[in-house]
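call fold(seq) -> tokens
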Amino acid sequence: MEQLHFVDACTDEHFRAMSLIHAMGWRDTYVDAVPAEYMAREITDERWVPFFRDDYRLKRCHGLLLYRDDTPVACINYGPARTENYNAGTKEGSDFPNAAYAGWGELISFYTHPAERGKGYGGLLIEEAIDRLRREGYKNCFVFVLRENETARRFYASHGFAWDGTHADIPFPPDAVCVDLRYTREL
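ret:
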């Protein structure tokens, strides 16, 4: 029988596993939303390793992996809301600073290995991260989700999140812009 267990990311092996899951998730999920030349140039298997390493070292956020036996199947980064401005806007498009979310928790990034989707692993991982945010004292949290990613939007809604009417425009050179919707939840 398979054994599922959570692992707090704290080693380069963990950071590489998380980066690979992120890269595979991007390549699978955003193929029609993010320009192909950007994906080929920027979305490498090792892309996020330095970020995860620095986040751990500086205690900016927490990385958490879900393993099935010895295989990492999903990962999430969570922690205090990043309050720098992300060119976020209301549905009318005016600037909406993340500073309004100071004191909130944030699910910063969350991916399940494409071959492992549909097995309930994502639900286990997100509920663990939400429980940890709650235990850390957060009353609310948010996550950004690509507007076109209907599957992810349904997933977050099934876990108590709802779009709060705000978004962030994410430019991808040379001329593409993706829209991330902010989904929020009380904890």
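The two ends are 33 Å apart (CA to CA).
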